Amino acid sequence: MSHVKAGGTAKNVHNNPGQRLGVKRFGGQKVSAGEVLVRQTGSTKIAGPGTFISRNFTIHAAIDGVVGFNKVKKSRFTGKSVPRTQVVVL
To answer: Which domains does the chain have, with CATH numbers?
Structure first.
């Protein structure tokens, strides 16, 4: 037999803060090197010229300049092309 009575279930335990994802610097804004431009889960936006992408898919500015966003077609491994937003710093 059990040594401990039934503990029941906890229902209100999913109280985690949000990850604060999204675009942090918008088109036309001046940025300096190293600034965070986009925080994202997965590669929904791709890094273009003047930017680099870190391990958690955050896009940073590699150079000083002005942020811009372009629509590009990126091909998947299967050959299908999908529209993506490219983040650039010029």
So the answer is: 22-89 (2.40.50.100)
